[in-house]
Amino acid sequence: MSVLVFFIVILFAFYLFYKTKYFRTSRPVEKKWLSAKSNIALGLFVFLFGINHLFFISQTTVTLIVSIIFIVYGGIFTWVGFKKYKHYLPYAEEEAAIEKRKRLAQGRQA
């Protein structure tokens, strides 16, 4: 089950990476798109954390309930993040293309 721990650490790193990119960008649609990507990473992190607790922690009723809550919450968070990601992807691509055209136009004028 060390594979689960590996994926949990990787997903948390992705979450931090996308949140950092979110705070560093100035484009509004790209912010929403990056937020959706970080939602997916956080949802998968919580989901796998719940599954991990089912295997490694002593089985008590409280542990089982908390693990199920984590699994359901992580699944919902991932699903909502994926829906947002699909929605904002074309707008983010369009926004990036417009930004690129602006930079090219400024370069030609200089």
Write up this protein.
This protein is an all-alpha fold. Helix content is 92%, strand content 0%. It has one domain. The protein is built from 3 helices and no strands. Helix 2 packs antiparallel against helix 3. The radius of gyration is 19 Å and the shape is elongated. The mean pLDDT is 91. Pfam families: YtpI. Keywords: Membrane, Transmembrane, Transmembrane helix. InterPro entries: YtpI.
Layout of SSEs?
Elements: H1 2-24, H2 28-56, H3 61-109
Helix pairs in contact: 1-2, 2-3
Task: List its traits.
110 residues, 3 helices, 0% strand, YtpI family protein
H-E order: HHH
Q: In one word, what is the shape?
A: elongated
Rg from alpha-carbon coordinates: 19 Å
Largest β sheet strand count, sense and barrel closure: none
Poorly predicted spans: none
- Could you give the distance between the termini? 58 Å
Helix fraction bin: over 70%
**Count of discrete alpha- or pi-helical segments spanning 4 or more residues:** 3
User: β content, as a range?
Assistant: under 5%
Class inferred from helices and paired strands: mainly alpha
Which whole number gives the mean pLDDT? Answer: 91
Number of strands: 0
- Structural domains: how many: 1
Protein name: YtpI family protein
Keywords: Membrane, Transmembrane, Transmembrane helix
